[in-house]
Amino acid sequence: MARSVIMPKAGMAMEEGTIVRWLKKPGETVTKGEAIAVIETDKVTMDLEAEDEGTLLAIVHGDGAVVKATHTIAWIGAPGEKIAEAADAAAKVAKPELEARTGRVPATPAARRIAAETGVRLGAVKGTGPDGAVRARDVAANVFQSARATPLARKVAAMRGVDLATVEGTGSGGKVRRGDVEAHAAMAPPTTQPEAGTAMPMSSMRRAIAGKMLLSHQTVPSVTLVTRADVTELAGLRDKINAAGAKVSFTDFVVRAVATALREQPLINSAVEGDRVVLRDEVNVGVAVALDAGLIVPVVHGADHLTVRQVSDTLRGLSAKARAGSLTPAECIGGTFTVTNLGMYGITEFTPLINVPESGILGVGAIEEVLRRGENGAIVERRLMSLCLTHDHRHIDGAPAAVFLGRVRALLENCWAFLA
Questions:
Q1: Catalytic site residues?
Q2: Nearest 5 degrees, angle CA 16-CA 19-CA 21?
Q3: Could you tell me what percent of the chain has a pLDDT over 70?
Q4: pTM for this one?
Q5: Of 84, 78, 73, nearest to 30 (Cα)?
Q6: Which domains does the chain carry?
Q7: Average pLDDT of 342-350?
């Protein structure tokens, strides 16, 4: 007897998913546990594995279709088995333009793998495949082109969405430097901007973000507190750690400081459920990652038990998987607090929206160099990082929020605490 294949429900909050592409065609043999399609939810892109073996009799919804969770998307059964519902559905399979609906860059699996391994942003690569799809050789060419730029220039280019091939370098031998990228970004719009005058259907991810942000804005009375941390010594410590072979970022230090402060002040690590406040027993810090298709928040579970280097390794792996579209649902759920960093874009202060049902989110701004008077009266140069805490005022008043933010600031300023 034929069995239906349904759109999986990856998490209680999932209402619908998008079929990115089918890996099997009607009439082909399917084995149990074999990946037969790629599914995109509001958080992750994942393989859909067959729960039965047999023949793929019919596909009910084609590539690009948005389907409600638990609804039938295909049928598996015995070879030649006839099913009226399956036959009717197969004749009506819609094949909308996938990229217009999902916002994903069309690319081959090999291209995505190479891009993830080399840190290349697919949106900045010009594809030479059918319908502009990015091929492996396109990514390889981009990597070669990146070799003519400094590491910092490549990093800034990735952050600003700049194609290095379009930047004229002013360094030795035409090498592209950071200033060249920033000047180019200031003069030209990002390469991933949509064409003016067009209508863009929202992807599953974009609709989920829109719904969650609207819910946060309408239901949570929030307040944002701002302070600045002196990270001069922290910057020196980071340079020493990186010079020794490790690669840690300021975000790694912030996540570790936030995790410590959350463990010490559980009220901030809480959530409102009806008429009660639930204090979480785990400290799981989500970190916002910007993608071409939208914003995703992978979670560092048990962040209060990790060292800065362990946080760094975890975040690097999660970010790479997020950009490659290979995060699992488990890596995106369970967060109790969120950190979002816009400092690399030159933003000094902002008011981030709370990622409900969490009670707080910390926005990290750009590090600014300022002149201050030192202890001996001399003028010294210091580096200040802005910290913007948005908290749920229903159960967290300004005073405890300020204490929490002050503790995060103190941990960043007393950077040697991270080595304990």
A1: 393, 397
A2: 170
A3: 79
A4: 0.63
A5: 78
A6: 3-98 (2.40.50.100), 102-187 (4.10.320.10), 204-419 (3.30.559.10)
A7: 92
